[in-house]
Automatic annotation (TrEMBL):
Keyword Mitochondrion among record annotations: no
Protein name, entry field: Bifunctional NAD(P)H-hydrate repair enzyme
Description of how the protein assembles with itself and partners: Homotetramer.
Source organism: Kushneria phyllosphaerae
Gene name, Swiss-Prot/TrEMBL: nnr
Function: Bifunctional enzyme that catalyzes the epimerization of the S- and R-forms of NAD(P)HX and the dehydration of the S-form of NAD(P)HX at the expense of ADP, which is converted to AMP. This allows the repair of both epimers of NAD(P)HX, a damaged form of NAD(P)H that is a result of enzymatic or heat-dependent hydration.
Entry binding sites for (6S)-NADPHX: 130-136, 159, 322, 370, 439
Length: 500
């Protein structure tokens, strides 16, 4: 795992900071490096910048803002600093930063309610609140954040957008909507999930003087999925590889009128390399399934008895898309649950699991709920799930075992309590807000599962391919109008990283 792909809690990053200082790097040196890194990134994106407006709160986040003010002023930029806390009250490195700004010639004005960002400003810098913020955003910070968001200029957030919970990605109230977030020392978990993608803009890591050795042996929370992972998890096949080596997936679902979901799941699984794909569905869907993908082996499923032999010959089973929650779906679910092999449970399968198999816990299955299904499985509300997606996924894993894929922006993959069993995908886009995206994701994950990847690695690599494929498709044709079935060809390319 690349060290810079690790994700940390705010407390863990604070410990990294303290360790680095204890190793002989002065705290103010780290603050100077943070300010320089943020200013460099700002000028890289907006090289014509001549006028900055910096809003400073308290603590080291404000200190970073004052350092940028000093450095920018020394470069000849016009700098306007607005202080929401009296600068003379700041302590430690932040007080040193205030002194540097004043010594450099920067004028510091007090923030007042009703203030508007000067129209001649080129870029706004958010140095209001840092990663330690937990409670509701209160005055005067709420009005200052609203002022930033009302302004038309681009916004750079220092370390984290003010108002965002660094651990959960939840919004604590009024939150800065940044175009660029320069985060320091290490990646904060909350920057990549929950509602964070709405407010972070592009995220750039500035590790400062924190060494890789310090990062490597420090506690962390999870890992960010990166494209390079696929090179290791999806190696080139041997010349003698045959279909029997690549697994047999059985997809179960598709009550009358809901066949599209299972057809997409099965076709996507084939596109990602499953050696054989069988589809057990209502008879009305057999002709369209074979027309869409003649490589499928399609079977009529009148009841659970019809699929028992298929389950026995399959490497793994995917059940749920279009299954329904009536007697037909219940019968098929019972047949699948009676067997002991690997399976992926999605959509209606999750509802049947909660209704009929309370207390069932298995190590070899993958559950793929969206937030609504996660809330149903946990017996809580969707806002409760979204308030702390990581804890919700951990709670599901403790209750049901196996691997949990909590879908949504910043999809989470959790296979246990350790950081090595927790992944977040930073990929994907709003174009994916269309029907069937979860069905093709299930097909991707299940395809990798039958090809021999572990449940955890199948889920992680499947989620990664899914997001990358959607981003590839959007780069080609744009977000609006993206269909789930568009992803198969892009996913196939991503599943063959040696060909890129």
């Amino acid at each position: 795992m690349a060290v810079n792909a690790r994700l940390y809690s705010a407390q863990q990053v604070q410990a990294l900071d303290q360790r680095t200082v204890a190793q002989g790097v002065p705290g103010f040196t780290l603050m100077m490096q943070a300010g320089q890194a943020a200013l460099d990134e700002l000028l890289k994106r907006w090289p014509e910048t001549r006028r900055l407006c910096i809003l400073c709160g308290s603590g080291n986040n404000a200190g970073d803002g004052y350092v940028i003010a000093a450095l920018a002023y020394q470069k000849g930029l016009t700098v306007k600093v607005l202080a929401l806390r009296t600068p003379n009250e700041l302590q430690g490195e932040a007080a040193c930063a205030v002194h540097l700004a004043r010594e450099s010639g920067v004028t510091i004005d007090d923030w007042h309610s009703g203030f508007e960002i000067p129209s001649e400003t080129d870029v706004i810098i958010d140095a209001l609140l840092g990663t330690g913020t937990r409670g509701e955003i209160r005055p005067p910070f709420d009005s200052a954040i609203a002022c930033i968001n009302a302004a038309p200029q681009p916004v750079v957030a220092l370390d984290i957008p003010s108002g965002l919970n660094a651990d959960t990605g939840a919004l604590l109230g009024e939150t800065v909507e940044a175009d660029l977030t320069v985060t320091f020392i290490a990646r904060k978990f909350g920057l990549y999930t929950g509602q964070a993608p709405d407010v972070t803009g592009e995220i750039v890591l500035a590790p400062l003087s924190v060494s890789e050795a310090t990062l490597s042996d420090s506690d962390h929370t999870g890992e960010l999925l990166v494209p390079e992972r696929l090179q290791a998890t999806l190696p080139r096949r041997r010349p003698t590889t045959h279909k029997g080596d690549c697994g047999h997936l059985l997809v179960v679902g598709g009550q009358p009128g809901f066949g599209g979901s299972t057809i997409m799941s099965a076709e996507t699984a084939a596109r990602l390399g499953a050696g054989l794909v069988s589809l057990a569905t209502a008879s009305v869907h057999i002709p369209p399934a074979l027309t869409r993908c003649p490589e499928m082996m399609v079977h009529e499923a009148r009841n659970g008895l019809d699929i028992e032999a298929l389950i026995d010959t399959a490497t793994a089973v995917l059940i749920g898309p279009g299954l329904g929650q009536g007697a037909w779906g219940q019968g098929l679910m019972q047949a699948v649950m009676s067997a002991s092999g690997p399976r992926l449970v999605d959509a209606d399968g999750l509802h049947l699991l909660a209704a009929g198999y309370a207390g069932e816990r298995r190590d070899n299955w993958i559950l793929t709920p969206h937030p609504g299904e996660a809330a149903m499985l946990l017996g809580c509300s969707v806002p409760e799930v979204q308030a702390d997606r990581h804890q919700a996924a951990l709670a599901l894993q403790r209750r049901y075992g196996g691997v949990i894929v909590l879908k949504g922006a910043g999809t989470l993959v959790v296979g246990g309590e350790t950081p090595a069993e927790c992944f977040i995908s930073p990929f994907g886009n709003p174009g994916m807000a269309s029907g069937g995206m979860g069905d093709v994701l299930g097909g991707m994950i299940a395809s990798l599962l039958v090809q021999g990847l572990s449940p955890l690695e199948s889920a992680a690599s499947g989620v990664l391919i899914h997001g990358l494929a959607a981003d590839d498709a959007v780069r080609d044709q744009g977000e609006r109008g993206l269909l789930a079935s568009d992803l198969a060809c892009y996913a196939r390319r991503r599943a063959n990283p040696d060909r890129r």
